[in-house]
Specification:
binds magnesium ion, 364 residues, 2 domains, binds 1,6-di-O-phosphono-beta-D-fructofuranose, alpha+beta, eight-stranded mixed beta sheet, five-stranded mixed beta sheet, 8 helices, 20% strand, Fructose-1,6-Bisphosphatase, Chain A, domain 1, disordered C terminus
Length: 364
């Protein structure tokens, strides 16, 4: 049987030029929390989430050997039917959060908040499994989470407790279950990158993640081109025009259809992700959910010198007005996100755009 042993791993690490042993998430969190009670609560919550995600990684790694994880249990609007693995993921992460100081959980998989310890200081918003359309194809999926304070006196079983501003978030992160399992985490002072080892520990890869500028790579589901509004079409047209267009360089395109995997690539090499609102029924505000998809990724991005917008303003300046609210979501390298914002905010020719390339159309 091919079972990688410690020697094998050390050899790989040596060959890759990295240290074989790295500082763990638990140690980082412990150091960060110190004697501060609020920080300690956040650290315990992130630890609980990490434990849940490590078990989930093991279940996902078994694939079809763990049963038909991709079987559809119910169909939903916007192609979001619930799959078996969605439900398993939800049970695992909520089960793990029972050990943390969390009053309630707003999950993509539950219509209403799930009440845990009503007097606890924190709330968690979570997408237990992002990219569920990819389960049966062995493509990366993920978990996305946001940690909020429980407002004074708020009842965590009520959606209103969760309807907070993006800048109220205390911590946010995601775990991507790819060829290796990785976590991106922010506690509000930078973005940290970890990888899961075979013993189930998240080990530090980079404590100063920075999203590069100047990348020529965009991610969008091109099949929706004819449903987009003018600013988004103009932006993509300009990228597609390549060297002969206003951008004067060729662009590459990627679309994993697991937002976490697209985000993870952008953290590694820059670029931009767009899921705008479009003309299809149910897609006026795009597809992604504000509380547990856009907020956490926007927080991670801003803490890594990237940015995130709905086309009009920073995602983190929004205040949620419904638990499962959708939002047009554009994030990535700061220069590209700023450019897309200009296309939205400057209807007549997008600032520096040459009239040769200007499209006439209705500004939304
Ligand atoms: O199939 P589409 O419309 O391109 O949508 C893909 C997008 O939908 C999502 O999968 C939504 O996440 P869920 O799997 O949690 O519903 C994003 O991760 C992804 O970018
Ligand atoms: Mg999702
Ligand atoms: Mg999901």
């Amino acid at each position: 049987m091919l079972e990688p042993n410690a020697d094998h791993r050390a050899a790989v690490a040596q060959a890759a030029g990295v240290a074989a042993s790295r500082i763990t998430l638990t140690v980082m969190l412990d150091e960060w929390a110190g004697a501060d009670a609020r920080r300690r609560a956040v650290a315990d919550t992130v630890c609980a989430l990490a434990t849940g995600c490590a078990s989930l990684a093991a279940a996902i790694a078994e694939g079809p050997l763990a049963g038909d994880l991709a079987r559809t249990l119910s169909s939903g609007e916007a192609g979001e039917g619930q799959k078996a693995l969605d439900v398993i993921s939800n049970d695992i992460v909520i089960g793990a959060l029972k050990a943390a100081p969390v009053a309630g959980v707003a999950s993509e998989e539950n219509d209403a908040p799930v009440l845990l310890d009503p007097t606890a200081p924190l709330l968690v918003a979570i997408d237990p499994l992002d990219g569920s359309s990819n389960i049966d194809t062995d493509i990366s999926v993920g978990t996305i989470f946001a940690v909020f304070p429980r407002p004074e006196g708020a009842d965590a079983s009520e959606p209103s407790a969760f309807l907070q501003n993006g800048r109220d978030m205390l911590a946010a992160g995601y775990v991507v279950y790819g060829p290796h399992t990785a976590m991106m985490l922010t506690l509000g002072a930078g973005t940290w990158h970890f990888a899961l080892d075979r013993a189930g520990l998240f080990r530090l890869v980079d404590a100063e993640v920075k999203v590069k500028e100047g990348a020529a790579e965009f991610a969008i589901n091109m099949s929706n081109y004819h449903h987009w509004d003018v600013p988004v079409r103009d932006y993509v047209d300009d990228c597609l025009a390549g060297k002969k267009g206003p951008r004067e360089r060729d662009f590459n395109m990627r679309w994993v259809a697991s937002m976490v995997a697209d985000a993870h690539r952008i953290f590694q090499r820059g670029g931009i992700y767009l899921y705008p609102g479009d003309g299809r029924k149910g897609y006026t505000h795009g597809r992604l959910r504000l509380l547990y998809e856009a907020f956490p990724v926007a927080f991670l991005m801003e803490q890594a010198s990237g940015s995130a917008t709905d086309g009009r303003g920073a995602i983190l300046d929004l205040t949620a007005d419904a638990l499962h609210q959708r939002v047009p979501f554009i994030f990535g390298s700061r220069d590209e996100v700023a450019r897309v914002s200009r296309y939205h905010l400057e209807p007549n020719g997008h600032g520096e755009r040459s009239p040769l390339f200007a499209r006439r159309g209705l500004f939304i």
